[in-house]
Amino acid sequence: MKAKQSDVFGTGNAGGQTCAPGRAMNRLAKSFALVLLFAGLLLGATNANALVCTSAATGNWNAAATWAAPCNVVGGPVAADTVTIGAAHIVTVTAAAAATSLTVIGALVNNSTLTLSAVLGGGGTLTNAATGILNIGGTSAITTLNASTAGNVVNYTGAGAQTINPTTYATLNFSGAGVKTNSGIVTVNTALTGTALTNSATGTLNIGGTSTITTLTATAVGNIVNYTGAGQTVKATSYDTLNVTGTATNSGTVTVATALGGAGTLTNAATGILNIGGTSLITGLTATAIGNVVNYTGAGQTVKATSYATLNVTGTATNSGTVTVATALGGAGTLTNAATGILNIGGTSLITALTATAFGNIVNYTGAGQTVKATSYDTLNVTGTATNSGTVTVATALGGAGTLTNAATGILNIGG
């Protein structure tokens, strides 16, 4: 009998056959080759996805001749690459392109979709043309960003906090979880859209078109929001300073803490609630729509001389002009009718305190079936029908073409 044979590779003869040493060597070589191939592919893929690309000439992004090696291939830089455009070069994006980081020292013109995941910087100029869509996922500290051409869109898409480049945009959109903040002067001509924007204390936000953004935070003391267009709808939110230089309408709840101003006209629609906590020097305030409410909520305020449906004073306020209230004068505060004040009340007058004693001021009750506020007046006129059920004192003149009824509980003191 022959003894069992065994080779140096540990192959035995359990099955009655012997595995040749050459076959085992082939298997080992093939395995080693596969490992090397995989490593090479992995290394190559890593290099291909993380190249440092520098422009070599003026040209299109996707043209090989535009880039120095190793990026001088058809298609140009890709999403994971770091890209620099040299001072003497103008690169034009004509088809969808992407990069992790883009530093523009010369110039770039985007006519397609350009997506930047981490950095947009450099002392040069990026122009987002009419057909351009620019997606910024990280910082945007480039010196000059031209994005005002009608039709172009700039999207801030970062998952982390982003600071908005202070420039003029046609359409400015926000997405991603990160907080987007404006700390400079940002102008939006066409549309402000997307998730959320915070206007910081140093931020000035000029809105010339629509403002359908989901959340606009504009409460920081010192920040300013200007509505500069025609036929705009004011975003229903809280503002520190709100200016209207064109024409705008509020159909929700708008609160203004410090100043309501501008040379334009704000219309408080039927569903509008306008809370004014500071000054109200706006040129035009239209608040006559039935159902709308204007609340003066601060201390030492001056009521805008205009016509109101419902006017409430919850702090202290003064009228020095002509104020007309059609439906209701209310609130837990005090309204003072100054010497030059004319106050026309067409509905109820349930305000907690009405001070109307200053010589020269006039209070007119102009409605039907009214109840006169029990207080002291300088001049009191009734042009419709009204009843006094409390104590009313008139220092200078009781007049009007209407009828005043002194009810059973009424005390009427006439001094003039």
Helix share, percent:
under 10%
Mean pLDDT across the residues is 91
Query: What is the percentage of strand-forming residues?
Result: over 45%
How many strands? 45
Main beta sheet: strand number and arrangement? 25 strands, parallel
- Cα(first) to Cα(last) distance is 147 Å
- Cα gyration radius (Å): 37 Å
- Which regions are unreliable across 5 or more consecutive residues at pLDDT < 50? 1-48
Q: What is the helix tally?
A: 1
Structural class: mainly beta
Task: Write a concise keyword list for the protein shown above.
single chain; 416 residues; mainly beta; 25-stranded parallel beta sheet; five-stranded parallel beta sheet; 1 helix; 7% helix; rod-shaped; disordered N terminus
Please give a structural write-up.
The chain has 416 residues and is mainly beta. The chain has one helix and 45 strands. It has a 25-stranded parallel β-sheet that branches. A five-stranded parallel β-sheet has the order 2-4-6-8-11, with no helix packed on it. Strands 13-15-17-20 form a four-stranded parallel β-sheet, with no helix packed on it. The longest helix has 28 residues, at 21-48. It starts with 20 loop residues before the first helix and ends with a strand.
Describe the structure concisely for a colleague:
7% of the residues lie in helices and 48% in strands.
